[in-house]
Amino acid sequence: MKTSTATRLGLRTVALGYLVVLLAVPIVLILWRTLGEGVGAFLESVRTPAAISALNLSLLIVAIVVPLNVVFGVATALALVRGRFRGRGLVQAVVDLPFAVSPIVVGVSLILLWGAGGWLGGVEKLGFKVIFGLPGMVIATLFVTLPFVVREVEPVLHEIGTDQEQAAATLGASSAQTFWRITLPAIRWGLTYGVVLTVARALGEFGAVIMVSSGFPGVSQTLTLLVHSRYIDDHNTYGAYAAATLLMGLAVVTLLLMTLLDRKRST
Amino acid sequence: MTATTATARRDDTMVSSLPPRPTPQRQFSARPLGVGLVGLWLSVIVLLPLAALTVTSFGDGVSGFWDAVTAPVALASLAVTVGLAAVVALLNAAMGTLIAWVLVRDDFPGKRVVNALIDLPFALPTIVASIVLLSLYGPNSPVHVHLNATRPGLVVALAFVTLPFVVRSVQPVLIEVDREVEEASASLGASNWTTFRRVVLPTLAPAIISGTGLAFARAIGEYGSVVLIGGNIPRRTQVASQYIQQQIEIDRPVNAAAVSVALLVIAFLTLFVLRVAAGRSRRREEESS
After folding, report:
1. CB neighbours of A135 closer than 8 A, spacing ≥ 6?
2. DSSP letter at B239?
3. Mean model confidence pLDDT for chain A
4. ipTM of this model?
5. Is B29 within the bounds of a domain?
6. Most exposed of B23, B96, B211, B277 (fewest Cβ within 10 Å)?
7. CB atoms B45 and A79 under 8 Å
8. Structural domain of B199
9. Cβ-nearest to A162 among B28, B117, B124
10. What's phi and psi for A128, nearest 5 deg?
11. Residue B91 binned pLDDT confidence (cut-offs 50, 70, 90)
12. Measuring CA to CA, which residue among B260, B38, B144, B103 is closest to residue A80?
């Protein structure tokens, strides 16, 4: 279908115009407003004690969530691809469930399960404070990031098949050796991609975490909660812009990694 | 438990009635213990919370559930949510397809940058999306467009976070499309518009529908990107997720749970319809080829 130059230019203008108004201008504006006051002001704003502890908390949550997602994500993917058990369809559906659930609904569900008076609310009496504590934020993040590793590793496992693993077993390798020497190297790029997606989502999660966090500055605020509280509670618009810029920087790093890994995966 | 005993029994019968066969597959297939652990993990993280939610929503009986969902403010928030999500989904269907078209069929300097930019809304935390849009369309707007606490403001926020869905589902299909059919149509005297409507659009339709559906499902549950720009005005700009959050804050867990379940049902129905539609179009394609 050959389009005339006028039509092509018209379509291009509309598409790019939409992207400029929706994406480019707002992002450039916030960068300009943050960095327009000088890099020093920006650094000062993201180096306050509350901001540093928010960054630390976000990183701590990532550090707990990623290993758990890697172990259980790979195990789930292995079970889905290699396993022949009843209820596989159900497991498939459950893995996709977090994509369809609103973050706020995740938060409410966790409060009703782990909160005072909830089904598992008893753990609070044992000194394990889930809701309004770190465990709640970790569990909320686990819920929303659960599909990523599974969904990135599963197709790779499908593709590599079991030939090499069977060869290794024939040559006398134990199943642990086979896993570490054959399976894991084969799925490493898919796994890494899943981890990058998990990290990005864990750093950026807001709705589910704000529901289960007490939100005290310096104690239980993640970076996203810091952006929110600076804007809403402190009316510190500049501080909110600065924290948002920091998160945006992390997002851009993620995006670059995703692009690089995507190329690596397809080769 | 049952899985373990079943395996054991099968092995017994194999030993007694059949000559032993090498079963190389077994070593790598998930063992019952692994499957059990995975099941436990998924149950604790995903299923138990949602079960607690559903049971709580019926805590005051079916009539209690119904009253909570049909309370005027709750119903209004659900209506606002579904209405806005529908508008955003349609906007995405049109603009997403157009952007995918320009990215595949057109050529201009900086196309790769634009292509990479499309994924930004997925990588960007939703609260950052909120702040970013407020800086342009909020109270300090340098262009004097004030969308703070208005429905158009919500549409912009939702359009921002759902941008990649349609583009990324249509793009690969458009790359694969057989262009000879389009040329044939043109040589038979069809106008560009006719060719697009009768030849290209039917091929793209499944991808457009699935992208639009995903955008819709995402939009009805969205919270982070609308929380700052929405204004949370009951019956006007309060979306369902904000209503749910408010009910938790004023300690009305049954109301919160009931509206949550309603929201979940809408999302599941959307995804179910998508799955059926996808299956049907795949079957039609198999029949025609």
Report:
1. A114, A128, A129
2. -
3. 88
4. 0.87
5. no
6. B23
7. no
8. 72-288
9. B28
10. -105, 90
11. very high
12. B38
What does the pLDDT look like over B261-289, one tens digit per residue?
999 999 999 888 888 887 787 787 777 75
- List of chain B residues whose C-beta atoms are within 8 Å of the C-beta of residue A251: 120, 123-125, 128
> B-chain residues within 8 Å CB-CB of A112?
49, 52-53, 56, 253, 257
CA–CA separation, A252 and A260 (whole Å): 12
In a domain, B53, yes or no: no
Percent share of chain B, pLDDT over 70: 88
Q: State pLDDT tens for residues A152-189.
A: 999 889 888 888 888 998 998 888 888 898 889 889 88
Closest chain B residue to A139, measured at CA: B45
pTM (two decimals): 0.86
Asked whether the beta carbons of A2 and B186 are under 8 A apart, the reply is yes
The span from the CA of A254 to the CA of A242, in Å, is 19
Residue B10 domain-assigned (yes or no): no
- Verify whether the Cβ–Cβ distance B106 to A11 is below 8 Å: yes
Residues ≥6 apart with Cβ < 8 Å to B19: none
Domain boundaries, chain A: 1-36, 51-266
**CATH number for the domain that contains residue B264:** 1.10.3720.10
Closest CA relative to residue B222, chosen from A241, A224, A106: A106
Task: Give the helix/strand (H/E) hosting B120.
Answer: helix B120-123
Is B125 in a helix, a strand, or coil? coil
**Inter-residue contact B116 to A24 (CB < 8 Å):** no
> Are A1 and B200 inside 8 Å of each other by CB?
yes
CA-closest candidate to residue B45, choices A208, A126, A56: A208
Backbone angles phi, psi at B11, to 5 degrees: -65, -40
Listed residue (B122, B130, B119) closest to B153, CA to CA? B130
Q: How many domains does chain B have?
A: 1
Q: State yes or no: pLDDT of B32 exceeds 70.
A: no
Question: Contact B265/B220 with Cβ under 8 angstroms?
Answer: no
Residue B12: band (very low, low, confident or very high) from pLDDT cuts 50, 70, 90? very low
| Domain-located, residue B16 | no
Q: Which residues contact B88 (CB under 8 A, 6 or more apart)?
A: B155, B158, B159, B162, B215, B216, B219
Contact A19, B117 (CB under 8 A): yes
